Amino acid sequence: MTGRRARAIRAIVAKDVRVAFASKAVLVPFIVVPVLFTVGLPLLFALIAPAAADQGGDLVRQLGELSPTLLASVAGLDDPQKVVVLGLVYLLAPLLLVVPLMFASVLAADSFAGEKERKTLEALIYSPVSDRDLLSAKMLSAWLPAVTLGLGAFALYCLTANVAAWPVMGRVFLPTWMWVVLALWVMPAAAAVGLGATVLVSARVSTFQEAYQLGGVVVLPVVALVVAQAVGVIYLSVWLVAGLGLVLWLAAAALLWAGARRFRRAEMIARL
Amino acid sequence: MTASQARGAAGARPTPRPPDTAVVEARELSRAFGNKVAVAPLSFTVARGELFALLGHNGAGKTTTLRLLAGVLTPTGGEARLFGMSPLAHGTEVRARLGVLAENPALEERLTGRQNLRYFADLYGYPAERVGARVNEVLEQFGLAGAAEALVGGFSKGMRQRLALARALLHEPELLFLDEPTSGLDPVATRQVVELVRKQVSHEGRTVVLSTHDLNLAQRVCDRVAVMRGGELAALGTPTELTRLAPHGKLRVGVAPGERAAAAALIAARHPAADIASPDDAPDDPGQDTLTVSRLPDGATPSLVAALVGAGLSVTRVEPLEPTLADVYFALYGAEP
Lengths: 272, 337
What we know:
The complex is a heterodimer.
Chain A: H1 3-21, H2 24-55, H3 57-66, H4 68-73, H5 79-91, H6 98-117, H7 121-125, H8 131-164, H9 166-169, H10 177-202, H11 208-215, H12 219-230, H13 238-262, H14 265-270
Chain B: H1 3-9, E1 22-33, E2 36-47, E3 51-55, H2 62-70, E4 77-82, H3 91-96, E5 98-101, H4 113-123, H5 131-141, H6 157-169, E6 175-179, H7 187-202, E7 207-212, H8 215-221, E8 224-229, E9 232-237, H9 239-243, E10 251-255, H10 260-270, E11 275-276, E12 289-294, H11 301-310, E13 315-320, H12 325-333
Parallel strand pairs in B: 3-7, 3-8, 5-6, 6-7
Antiparallel strand pairs in B: 1-2, 1-4, 8-9, 10-12, 10-13, 11-12
Helix pairs in contact in B: 4-5
């Protein structure tokens, strides 16, 4: 890639990120959701763990009945520690995928549909940036910040969980290998899925809100994953998480391919 | 002031060169959206250093034509060439030499004026070491230096238009496409923009293709005008050439106060094809009522005046009027200005 092309791509990424974070519609979910997931939930779980274990040994038993493998993974821990590990390591793990998914969806919605809504797309279309570079820049402007912030959220979650649960655990218990795979392999894939879905949707809608809401539907499988793990249907082992990542990467590739096919300046300007 | 006088006032202008140095060429260029023809096959060239206007109503196909010429919209038929190249096959190269002011200024409202310009300097690959100086230069040139650090969301419409024009010129393009550059501007802002556009041609030697429905702008500043109607090229020529297409026999007739209706009735009876301006459209002088009459047959004036006098009307004034581009335009569109 020539320096000129790289410079144009960098300029679009920098502009899109700057413009997105200047919007309250973008900024508010970027603050509320991570704070809730990475600080609020682990703090709450760690603080109620001793009481929950005293009064709800049933919870641990029920989980064990549904998923013996899950219960085996916490063998040797006392009840409060089991509640902490089952909750903070396994139950909430899939929820963290919501963060990069949502970040990528919001940023992509602002970058693709938002540009149409603000009527700034036409000037970009007349620029000498090729369709391919324009698409690459737009994708990077959503994916890079989403993954960066997702990794930050992951680190913050681990820190909060370890600190808050220290009285119960007495040791650092996060990240586990499953979490490392989740953060480095699955999380970028989840961001790519959020991006791909929003790029596809953005070709058909004309406002940021429409793109965000329709693209946000990809969060539903993550919710299903949380429920499936909570009721013991699946157990997030390292291998299952690695496989999940592969599925997400394939889904992202399909969505991005479909979205890229529609990303032609001649088609975009005809719809302005 | 005539067009040539207006251009002369702005400085010496290069004479448009013959078509072999054409910067812009449309060859049977057309575009349809479904069953709707937006641009019927049209052909024209624009020479280097020429100021060329696409003139027409909203929906006449002007914006679509500019998009086809720039290669950002695929034609249904025919082809466009800029600098001798197809903008579809050489889009990146062609658009690097082209500056465009779209109908909507298309500025990022959440960025400052300076940030908007720096962003586009990077997109167009303007030499990085000269970006700062160039941005300052165009901000100064367009009277926006004082507002450079303010968010564009707080700019007036005129300021936005000037900033968008500054952005179109930032990378020093050889060719400018201006889509309705004065649309929605107040008279002061319009004048500023017109002067800036004129200077681009007269001082900087750029080629300009602009779309407009502003007849005054087209007549005053453009070398040649293509009148578009329903996606078709209805007429093409210099403003002077086009005025020759206007219906002849345009008169301003003054009669004594209170005689306007009688005079209009008599003229209409003698010349049913003539257009007679309604009293509200004709300027009144103290002591007389005025009618503007157009589409009179050649040589009809003496007998008409004699008939008015013979009918007992007091004719106070008979003034032949030069046809304008507006006369041509409205004749083509079938409505009197």
